[in-house]
Task: inverse folding
């Protein structure tokens, strides 16, 4: 048997991108769409892009392509033999190095694996893609260590595999497989950074994760793919710490309407005072809502107040129902809807929300 080519349950934000087309779009000039102010076509923009009226990014947590779609018909997923069995395996250090294959799970919840840059390097193992179980740390109460626990029947495979080797099918994630069947499934699209939640969300919004000693000077920023030092991260209640420019700044410059939707119970501007709702799982954490951490978000450089564009998710549902969606929208998950392994959410609560 060979080794796995991609990551099962690993550290990356999962993004579902939905697009809606203009009902009757002017094809525009052959060289590409017009600029937002009606001027000349934008150089380098593919023809037809002007037909997209809405871009909607639904962001979930820490699930990989193979974990969700490794067995999807026709996808470049996990190799199988002529009998349909998985034709790959990797060493399991918890079973004396036995080579164990992936397995199909019917559990809605997973322990997953560690999610940081160091773990990703171990996972990839120089391109051999066989370090997913090797990256699992010793954790006394987790099933890959203490397998005798009654609940471990849901967190281990038929050969005792840790559920970092688990694979979902349409039986457990029917909504996502339905999206793939109805729309497009991209099987060669990879995360821009192999790190944890905050750097991943920063990359999604700005194509960078960095530390800026001078929060007013973008030239002071230096790449930091871990942001392991809490003092380098913006958290709710802090002054801004990210001095470089995010994509919403450019959207404002070109008059493109956008919104960043978060959990209804989230109070991110803590300096204004936050009520204690007692519903922490229904909040969107700071590392999934990094926009207010950018200096340009607060410094008045925009024509409109950017703070007005971070809105509760109920407003997205209302806009979708009334046909009043912004051109670009992000939906950042709450704790109980993110599908983050070992968290308060499961694949059932995530896809049903």
Result:
């Amino acid at each position: 048997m060979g080794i796995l080519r991609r990551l099962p349950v690993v550290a990356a934000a999962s993004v579902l991108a939905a697009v809606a087309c203009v009902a009757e779009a002017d094809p525009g000039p052959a060289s590409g769409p017009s600029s937002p102010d009606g001027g000349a076509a934008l150089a380098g923009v593919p023809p037809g892009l002007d037909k997209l009226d809405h871009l909607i990014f639904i962001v979930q947590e820490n699930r990989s392509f193979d974990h969700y779609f490794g067995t999807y018909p026709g996808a470049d997923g996990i190799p199988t033999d002529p009998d349909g069995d998985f034709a790959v395996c990797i060493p399991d250090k918890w079973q004396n190095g036995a080579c164990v294959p992936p397995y199909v799970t019917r559990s809605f919840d997973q322990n997953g694996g560690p999610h940081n840059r160091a773990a990703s390097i171990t996972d990839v193992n120089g391109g051999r893609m066989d370090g997913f179980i090797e990256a699992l740390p010793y954790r006394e109460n987790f099933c890959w260590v203490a397998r005798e626990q009654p609940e471990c029947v849901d967190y281990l495979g038929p050969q005792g595999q840790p559920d970092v080797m688990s694979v979902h099918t349409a039986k457990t994630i029917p909504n996502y497989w339905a999206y793939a069947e109805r729309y497009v499934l991209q099987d060669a699209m990879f995360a821009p950074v192999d790190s944890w939640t905050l750097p991943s969300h920063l990359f999604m919004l700005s194509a960078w994760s960095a530390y800026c000693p001078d929060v007013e000077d973008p030239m002071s920023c230096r790449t930091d793919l871990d942001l392991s030092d809490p003092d380098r991260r913006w958290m709710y209640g802090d002054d801004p710490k990210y001095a470089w420019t995010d994509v919403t700044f450019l959207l404002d410059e070109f008059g493109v309407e956008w919104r960043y939707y978060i959990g209804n119970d989230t109070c991110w501007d803590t300096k204004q005072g936050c009520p204690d709702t007692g519903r922490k799982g229904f909040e969107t954490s700071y590392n999934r809502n990094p926009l207010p951490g950018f200096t340009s978000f607060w410094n008045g450089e925009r024509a409109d107040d950017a703070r007005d564009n971070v809105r509760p998710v109920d407003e997205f549902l209302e806009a979708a129902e009334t046909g009043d969606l912004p051109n670009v929208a992000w939906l950042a998950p709450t704790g109980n809807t993110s599908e983050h392994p070992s968290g308060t959410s499961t694949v059932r609560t995530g896809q049903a929300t």
About this structure: The helical segments are 65-69, 117-124, 174-182, 197-206, 247-253, 313-322, 347-351. The mean pLDDT is 87.
